[in-house]
Amino acid sequence: MTWSAAAVRLAVPPLVSGGLLLTYRCSSACRHCLVRGSPARPDTWIDPDMADRAFAALARESCLEGIHLAGGEATLRMDLLLDVVRLAVRRGIPLDYLETNAGWCHSREVALDGMRRLREAGLRAVLVSASPYHNEFIPFHATRLAVEAALEVFGARGTFVYTSLAYEMLSALPGDGRHPLPRQLEAWGLDGDPRGVLRVYPVVPGGRAVAGLRSCWTARPASAYRSIDCYQDLTSTSHFHLDPDGNLFTGLCVGLAVATIDDLHPDITAGAHPLFDCLATAGPHGLMRLAAERHGFVERPAGYVSRCDLCLDVRGHLAGTGLYPELRPIDFYGPDVAIPPLRPE
């Protein structure tokens, strides 16, 4: 059977804007994490040579507007992070910002010292993550110290808080510490409907969110996604990511890579890249049919909250066959940390 539903030429367009993931290791295991970062992920990091090769490849991209640095949590190895910043500056790569969960900001002195070292290395902006999901792991006083230190070192134009609404709402919670998400929702009067958290901090229904925030969406059978393909997502390079192994993820499709820093624009064919081709032309439902016919995949009876949920379930099954090198890194499909439900099942 031919899985290409249309005669569509598949290619990775010129890269526009994206991020370099220094690691998948993180001090948190947030419900919404697209890359499924956590303390349980392997303690592996991008090495300076790989980072330099990545920046060299990016420097050849004619449409590149900027790169941000992220993880996981990139500040867990501050010295490596500083080296990566210097390498980017040396290669002339426009660095938009560093994304951090602020867990390292234990005191004003530590926060200021880290921000100053980053600025001296060549960084020009910091994005501090402030969300209900982060606050389950990161005390708000650390978030506040990070924002205050960033403002002092980088100024208002170099300090981003994502999101400012979540920051304001978290600042009103008692104790200045960590709070389980159900308790946050109760304090904000949103506990009657767990979907209310998405008004405070919208989330892409992919990655860990399809499990950690499942009750925020309505599950539907796989057939509900029958007519949806992923061409636009897979050929989008306005928010791409490069991971520590040099894999390129287009759109927000972490765990599916046909390109690397050694070849950012490969010839994409159904023979060499069957999963990417199938998703681009027939979508997750088409991929489910492929997996069912070739590898005995069975649809989840409880349904799926999004096409990404369906895709991840199918890709997880296919990863277990070991037959599809597009599915990388393979530990993305391994066991994940347990996340308490928002409400009793």
Give a structural overview:
The protein has 345 residues and is an alpha/beta fold. It folds into two domains: 17-202, Aldolase class I (TIM Barrel); 224-236 and 257-333, no CATH class. The protein is 34% helix and 9% strand. It has eleven helices and eight strands. Residues 1-6 have low confidence and may be disordered.
The CATH level-2 architecture of the largest domain is identified as Alpha-Beta Barrel
| Name of the CATH homologous superfamily of the largest domain | Aldolase class I
Q: Going across the major beta sheet, what is the strand order? A: 5-4-3-2-1-6-7-8
**Broad shape:** globular
Number of helices: 11
Report the top-level CATH class of the largest domain: Alpha Beta
Q: Name the helicity range.
A: 25-40%
Q: CATH topology of the largest domain, anyone? A: TIM Barrel
**What is the rounded distance between the termini?**
40 Å
Structural class: alpha/beta
Give a topology summary:
Blueprint: E1 17-21, H1 48-59, E2 66-70, H2 78-90, E3 95-100, H3 108-121, E4 126-129, H4 140-154, E5 159-162, H5 164-171, H6 181-187, H7 197-200, H8 209-212, H9 231-234, E6 240-242, E7 247-249, E8 259-260, H10 274-295, H11 307-319
Parallel strand pairs: 1-2, 1-6, 2-3, 3-4, 4-5
Antiparallel strand pairs: 6-7, 7-8
Helix pairs in contact: 1-2, 2-3, 3-4, 10-11
